Amino acid sequence: MTERRKVAVVTGGSSGIGAASVRRLAAEGYAVITGARRLERLRAVTEPVGAAAHVLDVTDPGSVAAFAAAVAERAPAGLALLVNNAGGALGLDPVEKTRDEQWEWMFQANVLGTLRMTRALLPALIASGDGHIVNIGSIAGFETYPGGAGYTAAKHALRALTRTLRLELLGHPVRVTDVAPGLVETEFSAVRFDGDQERAEKVYEGMTPLTADDVADCVAWAATRPSHVNIDELVVRPRDQATATMVHRQPAHRQPDDR
Ligand code: NAP
């Protein structure tokens, strides 16, 4: 079926910021195609808003190629928006205790996954005549914190590749934006702590974090500026957070790490 609406791709649409972005972009009138590893979770997001869901593992080149072929079929006139959101953190141990698999996954998902998706969909973004890449970075892209070496290094790398793309795409009709959030309450911390829900909830205790919808709002705002306006970087934190390590919590919830 040929699509008349602008087409947007969101990676990692099965939960959190990706799911909120799928819903928000659909509400803004985009035909949204999203991918993630958990197809059932993806469908629960896409079906209510009429978006399309395909299995996608951004760490697997074959999966990225199959996903890109599905996008080409649905959007022969090109792609208006690519939101590279799939990613996350694993563990919060110091370097001396972190396992290789955790570092490898963080670089695969956040950095190489974004590069692969961008390379695969760049021709379609250019072909649309008005494309836009929004990478979901993090304050971890320009700050560091103890236990965060793998994740902060990956998000620093993501920020570097985003800035590089802006140089390489100068003269092409493609905007490039880095949306860099602080604490957002999603499944991020449950994934980081290997399903330890109690530890994950402690991250947001006694403070008001951002919601996934708050970040989707930033994505939609950047995407809906006029075509000649490129929002380079959009840093968004909760009012209760000054830096990665300075968080204001209600006294009963103060934590040993709080500065
Ligand atoms: P989340 O709720 O855990 O969502 C992560 C999403 O990424 C899921 O939909 C997951 O889907 C998908 N994903 C993970 N690995 C994937 C892979 N290999 N291929 C395809 N999809 C994959 O966490 P979130 O907070 O929304 O995270 C979204 C992005 O925001 C991440 O890049 C994260 O680093 C960034 N971020 C989060 C925060 C925060 O505090 N939450 C702050 C700054 C930046 P499947 O598991 O179904 O594949």
Chain-wise SSE layout:
Elements: E1 7-11, H1 16-27, E2 31-36, H2 39-46, E3 52-55, H3 61-74, E4 81-84, H4 100-127, E5 131-136, H5 149-168, E6 174-181, H6 188-192, H7 197-202, H8 212-223, E7 233-236
Parallel strand pairs: 1-2, 1-4, 2-3, 4-5, 5-6, 6-7
Structural notes for this entry:
The mean pLDDT is 97. The chain has helices at residues 16-27, 39-46, 61-74, 100-127, 149-168, 188-192, 197-202, 212-223, and strands at 7-11, 31-36, 52-55, 81-84, 131-136, 174-181, 233-236. Helix 4 (100-127) links the parallel strand 4 (81-84) and strand 5. 41% of the residues lie in helices and 14% in strands. The protein is globular, with a radius of gyration of 18 Å. The chain has a seven-stranded parallel sheet, sandwiched between helices. The longest helix has 28 residues, at 100-127. The chain has one domain (7-236): NAD(P)-binding Rossmann-like Domain (Rossmann fold, 3-Layer(aba) Sandwich). It is α/β, with parallel strands linked by helices and 259 residues long. The site of NADP nicotinamide-adenine-dinucleotide phosphate (NAP) has 33 residues, from helix 1, helix 4 and helix 6.
Sum up the overall morphology in one term: globular
Annotated CATH topology: Rossmann fold
Mean pLDDT, nearest integer? 97
In what order do the strands lie side by side in the largest sheet? 3-2-1-4-5-6-7
Nearest-angstrom radius of gyration? 18 Å
Distance between the termini: 55 Å
Bound molecules: NADP nicotinamide-adenine-dinucleotide phosphate
User: pLDDT below 50 for ≥5 consecutive residues: which ranges?
Assistant: none
CATH H-level homologous superfamily name: NAD(P)-binding Rossmann-like Domain
Counted by DSSP, the helix tally is: 8
